[in-house]
Structures are given as structure tokens and as C-alpha cells.
Design goal:
The complex is a heterodimer of chains A (282) and B (265).
Chain A: H1 16-19, H2 24-48, H3 51-56, H4 58-74, H5 84-102, H6 106-113, H7 116-121, H8 127-155, H9 164-192, H10 195-211, H11 224-232, H12 234-247, H13 255-276
Chain B: E1 4-13, E2 16-26, E3 31-35, H1 42-49, E4 57-62, E5 65-66, H2 71-77, E6 78-81, H3 93-103, H4 108-121, H5 137-147, E7 155-159, H6 167-184, E8 187-192, H7 195-201, E9 204-209, E10 212-217, H8 219-224, H9 233-241, H10 251-264
Parallel strand pairs in B: 3-8, 3-9, 6-7, 7-8
Antiparallel strand pairs in B: 1-2, 1-4, 4-5, 9-10
The chains are: A mainly alpha (282), B alpha/beta (265).
């Protein structure tokens, strides 16, 4: 291999234009643009190797096919006038979003053990854009799950609301849920810093988040102490939103409240994540 | 005015002083080498200069911008290739560069050309569309350097750029580093524990030992400062740091170094 000559001009310093401090709107547009670049990066990775998406689809399929079918038959859980399978389908969607998102933080630990995170942090990319970009990519992964679960649910005869506005709402809820839990996951990854500890904590968190929610049974039938936990669990709000939009059951807390909770919690976690992220390399 | 300047740059981890009052300056267009055994504080120093690690005290400036007060501007002015593998193995070489061209705000109409030029410059044009995990260690290093030169940084930081490479791949990286300076007038700041590397590349070197700078100057001047006839940079190193490559560092450092070597091998 030989070195090639190029007609590229010498340029010591980067152009002055780049050095001007950014202000207001500029900062925000830059933040959005960089967020999309990070999301694009993740989407490209996924395109090269989509096996993750397929293996991820197994678990929700089992829940719907096995757990859902059995409990629909026994009618052990009171779900009013909707069949149990219809009741749980939104819960399983929320669960699969949760599972994809909550383990996404491990990628950060991988990238930190290599030098990838260092390189991103030394670039002029806003920290919050690095975090939100990763979170959006969890959203993309979650959307493929949602498509799969919709197809399976339709096959199983679940009475889904297919109105475009309802679908748009589901899309929003899925992406918000993925952003929320993957940012949470990233914060944990920044705290524990090793894969082993992260996996341990991930396992410990996932099941309580899932069971202390309205995903597979209504909050009404829970003991009081669990009701309290379910009400502060953001997953309950995601499920409530999904259930209202997917099977038309009236929302317990109100769609606007659900949406508000998901957005506010995500924003809060994003701010914490952006603060924590640079510390992952220290 | 020097392009890179540090004043009393210090970093403590608990009671350990990893870098102790590092004061030095690098002129534009220089290749400057920070030498020292593992655990001497080189990586810590480079992390502070690249805004990854806040100094405990003191400061560093790149083209007059402080790493503590103007971190955003500093990040626009520098390129950084970490010691460990920083290219993404699950993407192609082209994609790795494209993403960084976007992150560094290379104007859209120039982007494609810059990326292609960088690939050609590093001798990677033919491998551009292969996944990076199929690359050899030397190719990965050159790709990483290509990634960090896309925005024509004023200072390019290379942390142990040839660790784990075989001699042929190492030489090729050296040639490219020299070509970068020749073609773009780039200032290059590198760390290494290979005396041969410092001798081949650097205009000035600083020898670090246990967080302190033990000696600083041109390789020739440092060699001449020893009483010994025909002294090599190795002798200089042993003279000032008291040991050849007796590594400090922890279990974790050792594990990392070997892992990196294996990935690159």
C-alpha cells in the first residue's frame, strides 16, 4: 500500500465558523440533528445484524400463546367484558418494550470497555444527544416488536383498534416507553460500570417492574401495598395508554396523564443520563 | 503561541496522584510524544487534554481554549484516538467515517469527498464497505485515525497508537502519522511506551514517571544529556524513570492491554 497524494489544501485550524458559540435555537437544532445521527448509527448496526430482533420476538410470543391462552380459558383474572387475551396483549407489548429497553444499557458498558464511548465524548456532540439517540434506537427496536405483536394478536383474534390515530398513539407510547426505560438502563450502566453487575441489577429490576404493574392483571385486584407500587411505576401508565388505544378500554388515569407522566419521567431521566454519561469513562 | 499548553495540570484519584503538575507546551505542526511505562499517567494526562476527565487542579489549553472552561470549543478543535479499539466493528469502514463526519459538522456537500479522501489517505479505499470486524489490527488503527482527521483537527491526540500491532503494521501507522503532518500541517500529540516509536516520530518528547515529568526535550538532546557514548532513547528512559518497562498499573490495566492486543492482533 502506498500513500496517495491529494489536492486537499493544508488546514491547521478548523474553520472559525465552527468555533462560534452556539445560541438558543441553534443549540436546539444542533441537539436534534446530533440525536438523529446517533439514532442513525444504531439503525445501521441493526440493519447489518437484525438477528436480535428475531430472537427478541420469542418471549412475547410465548406469553401470548401460552400464558394468554391458558388464562383466557380459566377466567381467573377479572377483566370485565373483554377476553383476557385482549386485556393482556397491550401488557405484553409494554413488557417487550421494557425488556428491550432495560437491557440496552449493557451496550454502553461494551462500548466503554472498548474505546468507543471515549471517542464520542471527545467529539462536540451534546451529551443529551448521545443519550437520547441511544434511547431512540431502543424505540426503533421496540417498534419492530410492536409490529410483530400486532400481527400475532390479530392472528389470535384479539379485537384491536386499527384506526390510524389509535396506531399513531400506540407508536408514541411505545417509543416513549422505550426512551424512558432505556435511559433508566443507561443510568444504571453508568453507575455499575461492569457487565456482570449490570446483568444482575437488570434481572432484579425487570420482574418487579413488570409484576408491580397493570400489565397482566388489573390494579384493582392487587393488595394495597402493591397498588401503591403499581401507581408509581411508569410502566403502569404506559400499559394504561396502550390498553386504551389498542383495545379501546377506557383509560384509568386518562390518556393525557399517561402521556404527561411518560414525557416528564423521560425528560428527567434524560437530564440525569446526560450528567452521568461522561462519568462512565472515569 | 503554542497550540497546546498545560499549566500545573494535576489529577488525583483518592490519594493517588496520577498526574502531578504537568506543565508543557507543544508548537503547531509538531509531533510530540509523551513517554512512560504503563501506569505513568500518560492516559490520564491525555484524557484531561481531551476533556474526558476534569483536572483536580491546573488547566490545559488548546489554541487558547481551556479544557475546563471551553470544553465545547476544545472538542471541535481536537481529534482523539483512544488506546482501546474505538471503531465500531458492526459497521463498515465507510459508515464509521460517515457518522463522525456528521457529528463533527463536516458540511453536507463536502462530506462524501472528505470520507472518500480519508479512506484513500489511509489506504482503506478497497475495504471501505467491509464490516470493520473483518479488518486487521493495523487497518482498524488507520480507520480510527481517519475518523478523527475528518474535521481537520488542530491537534490530533493518539493514545498508544501502535499498541498490539506487529512491526509492519506499526511502521505503516508511523508513515501515515508523518504524512498527516506533512499534508495537513496537523499537530500530533501521542503517548507511547515504545522508545523506537518516539525516536521515529517525535520532534519533542516528555518522559513521565509515576505522574511526574522526569525529562523533556528533543530525542537528540535527551540522548546527548547522558554521559554514555551512543546512548539510545531506551537508555534515556531507563536513566530518568529508573526502570525499563517495569509496568505499574493494575490487574485491570493489564487485562485491558491484553484484550486490546488480542482484538488488534
Amino acid at each position: 500500500m502506498t500513500l496517495q497524494e491529494h489536492g486537499v489544501p493544508r488546514g491547521g485550524l478548523a474553520s472559525q465558523r465552527l468555533l462560534r458559540p452556539l445560541t438558543g435555537l441553534h443549540t436546539f437544532v444542533n441537539f436534534l440533528r446530533k440525536t438523529l445521527v446517533i439514532a442513525e448509527l444504531e439503525a445501521r448496526k441493526l440493519r447489518h445484524d437484525p438477528t436480535e430482533l428475531i430472537t427478541r420476538a420469542v418471549q412475547p410470543a410465548l406469553w401470548l400463546l401460552v400464558f394468554g391462552q391458558v388464562f383466557t380459558r380459566t377466567r381467573a383474572i377479572p377483566t370485565g367484558d373483554v377476553p383476557y387475551l385482549d386485556f393482556m396483549a397491550p401488557g405484553i407489548l409494554a413488557q417487550s418494550v421494557l425488556f428491550i429497553a432495560i437491557f440496552s444499557g449493557i451496550a454502553i458498558i461494551w462500548e466503554r470497555d472498548l474505546g468507543i464511548v471515549h471517542k464520542f465524548l471527545a467529539s462536540p456532540t451534546p451529551r443529551a444527544a448521545l443519550v437520547l439517540g441511544k434511547a431512540l434506537s431502543a424505540g426503533v427496536r421496540a417498534l419492530t416488536q410492536a409490529t410483530f405483536i400486532y400481527l400475532l394478536a390479530l392472528l389470535l383474534g384479539v379485537n384491536l383498534n386499527l384506526h390510524p390515530l389509535a396506531l399513531l398513539g400506540v407508536l408514541t407510547a411505545v417509543i416513549l416507553g422505550a426512551i424512558l426505560f432505556s435511559t433508566f438502563s443507561l443510568i444504571i450502566a453508568c453507575l455499575v460500570k461492569t457487565r456482570e453487575r449490570f446483568m444482575g441489577i437488570g434481572q432484579v429490576l425487570t420482574m418487579p417492574l413488570f409484576f408491580a404493574s397493570n400489565a397482566i392483571y388489573p390494579i384493582d385486584i392487587m393488595p394495597d401495598w402493591l397498588k401503591v407500587l403499581a401507581r408509581i411505576n411508569p410502566l403502569s401508565y404506559e400499559v394504561d395508554m396502550l390498553r386504551a388505544l389498542m383495545i379501546g378500554q377506557s383509560s384509568a388515569t386518562g390518556l393525557l396523564v399517561d402521556f404527561g407522566v411518560l414525557v416528564l419521567v423521560s425528560a428527567g431521566l434524560l437530564l440525569i443520563g446526560a450528567k452521568m454519561y461522561p462519568r462512565v469513562v472515569i | 503561541m503554542p497550540i497546546l499548553e498545560t499549566r500545573e495540570l494535576t489529577r488525583q484519584f483518592g490519594t493517588l496522584v496520577a498526574v502531578n503538575r504537568l506543565t508543557m507546551s507543544v508548537e503547531q505542526g509538531e509531533i510530540f510524544g509523551l513517554l512512560g511505562p504503563n501506569g505513568a499517567g500518560k492516559s490520564t494526562a491525555i484524557k484531561m487534554m481531551t476533556t474526558l476527565l476534569p483536572p483536580t487542579s491546573g488547566d490545559a489549553q488548546i489554541a487558547g481554549y481551556s479544557v475546563t472552561r471551553h470544553a465545547g470549543q476544545v472538542r471541535r478543535l481536537i481529534g482523539y484516538v483512544p488506546q482501546m479499539v474505538s471503531a465500531d466493528g458492526t459497521l463498515s469502514g465507510y459508515e464509521n467515517l460517515l457518522i463522525f463526519a456528521k457529528l463533527y459538522d463536516v458540511p453536507r456537500r463536502e462530506r462524501e469527498k472528505r470520507v472518500r479522501d480519508a479512506l484513500a489517505f489511509m489506504g482503506l479505499a478497497d475495504a471501505a464497505d467491509q464490516l470493520v470486524r473483518t479488518y486487521s489490527g493495523g487497518m482498524i488503527r488507520r480507520l480510527e485515525i481517519a475518523q478523527s482527521m475528518l474535521h481537520r483537527p488542530a491537534v490530533l491526540f493518539l493514545d498508544e497508537p501502535t499498541v498490539g500491532l506487529d512491526p509492519a503494521a506499526r511502521r505503516l501507522v508511523w508513515e501515515h502519522v508523518q504524512q498527516l503532518r506533512a499534508d495537513y500541517g496537523m499537530t500530533i500529540f501521542l503517548t507511547t511506551h515504545l522508545m523506537e516509536e518516539a525516536d521515529a516520530l517525535c520532534d519533542h518528547v516528555a518522559i513521565m514517571h509515576l505522574g511526574n515529568v522526569a525529562a523533556m526535550g528533543t530525542p537528540a538532546a535527551l540522548k546527548a544529556s547522558l554521559a554514555k557514548e551512543g546512548a539510545t532513547l531506551d537508555d534515556v528512559f531507563i536513566h530518568y524513570s529508573g526502570s525499563a518497562l517495569e509496568s505499574g498499573g493494575t490487574y485491570r490495566d493489564a487485562a485491558r492491554a491484553r484484550r486490546t492486543a488480542r482484538r488488534l492482533g
